[in-house]
Automatic annotation (TrEMBL):
Single GO molecular function: oxidoreductase activity
Keyword annotations from UniProtKB, A to Z: Oxidoreductase
Organism name: Fictibacillus solisalsi
Record's protein name: Pyrroloquinoline-quinone synthase
Signal peptide: none
Highest taxon, organism lineage: Bacteria
Alphabetical list of InterPro entries matching this protein: Haem_Oase-like_multi-hlx (IPR016084), PqqC-like (IPR039068)
Cited SUPFAM superfamilies: Heme oxygenase-like (SSF48613)
Length: 239
């Protein structure tokens, strides 16, 4: 029978739940980081990524609504995260669209859900489902720990090549630089909330399960992008 984990052990297990399916190791990330992609591949990524991260404030709004008043710190964090997505300085989706347009696509194509791969729709739907249906602690574990906390490691791997090989300037790739910093902070605060508020064996186990599933869902999304937009092009180049 499972026992209540100490915070240190719980954190360790949460991190382990991500490791095996961390999107930093995905084929799409590797192809990006090693300079094998063309700008048109970045455009297809942006057209998909918009429909995953674009509704992030919506996901968070459901979590906020389901968080009891006594969890003041958790509510404050969720509200601040929503504010940063939509209102602080530039909207994050506008920064993403700026990058997309630099890669040769248009705002209209990015915003059109018909340009999503099925695996992108799967990830988006999973995020909505978790945010709407689960306990706020479980939902925070899924979306902030399982998904958002991965971003800094992914973008640190992808961003240098955008400057060094592809010649993007700081304004064009602000989306990535911003999220390396902001999502590291969000991830740590997410961990803190989960460690403090998942105070039963059942909640701890559900958090571990949903973080593991979240990592798999994001990896499925990344593999979907690679298989749909990249694999055939790289096979042609290699042959």
């Amino acid at each position: 029978m499972a026992e209540l984990l100490s915070k240190d052990e719980f954190r360790k297990q949460l991190e382990e739940a991500i490791k095996g399916n961390h999107s930093q190791k995905a084929a799409f990330t590797e192809a990006w980081a090693t300079g094998k992609l063309a700008r048109e591949h970045f455009a297809r990524w942006a057209e998909n990524h918009y429909h995953y991260v674009g509704p992030f404030a919506d996901y968070l709004a459901y979590i906020y609504a389901h968080t009891p008043e006594k969890y003041t710190e958790a509510k404050d964090f969720t509200l601040q995260n929503m504010y940063e997505e939509e209102l602080a300085a530039d909207r994050h989706t506008d920064l993403l669209i700026r990058f997309a347009e630099t890669c040769g696509t248009t705002r209209e194509r990015v915003e059109d859900p018909n340009n999503m791969a099925p695996t992108t729709l799967g990830l988006q739907s999973w995020c909505y489902s978790i945010a709407m249906r689960e306990n706020f602690v479980v939902a925070t574990a899924a979306l902030v720990v399982g998904l958002e906390s991965q971003v800094p490691d992914i973008y640190r791997k992808q961003t240098p090549i955008l400057r060094e090989k592809y010649g993007f300037d700081d304004e064009q790739i602000e989306f990535f630089d911003l999220h390396i910093v902001s999502d590291e902070i969000h991830g740590e605060r997410g961990y803190k909330i989960v460690l403090e508020c998942a105070d039963t064996v059942e909640l701890q186990q559900k958090c571990l399960e949903v973080v593991r599933t979240g990592a798999k869902m994001r990896r499925m999304y990344m593999d979907g992008l690679y298989n749909t937009y990249v694999a055939k092009d790289l096979e042609t180049v290699q042959s």
